[in-house]
Specification:
Structural class: mainly alpha
Number of domains: 1
Largest sheet: none
Helix content: 55-70%
Order of helices and strands: HHHHHHH
Number of strands: 0
Strand content: under 5%
Number of helices: 7
Shape: globular
Distance between the termini: 58 Å
Length: about 200
Amino acid sequence: MIEYLDKLDKQLFLFLNSLHSSFTDSFFGFMTDQETWYPLYALVLIFIFQKYRWQGLYLLAAILITIGLADQFSSGFCKPFFARLRPCHDPEISSLVHLTFRGCGGQFGFISGHSSNSFAIATIFFLLLRNDVKYIKLMYLWAAIVAYSRIAVGVHYPGDIFFGALAGSLIGWLVFQGFKRFKGELLIRLKESGEV
């Protein structure tokens, strides 16, 4: 069963990876570059501190914890544990891979760190800001484009992307649950001390 799913994943990857042009190569190369998104992150952080003042530090801590956990889970645990070769390193199909951007990257690709991190960020941003930012759900569209870009540039299978998105979303949700609990306990302590 695993071998069959692996074969399907490779076939789907080769099909999606073959759908390229000079425009899509440039577009997905731009989208997959983490530095592209620094201005977006900066704008969100500016908004958080303008809206929540000093309490923005708690939101920032939740965001940083989410990113750290997602990154460590994907790159620190999953990749060495599963040791699944990236398509561009897989001798079975590497000659068929349309590789763009900055080369193949590390040897192993399951799960995708870009996918895990972007969906973790989208989830924590959505859960923290959904009542104050009307279009925050568009972060999921951003995450999906970033995740798909990893197939387009030739470094991840669709399975790497799917399970990365799932893991990142779950991590974002779990951090938010912890944040809610911490915030609730903090509020109780502040009320008891008469500060609120």
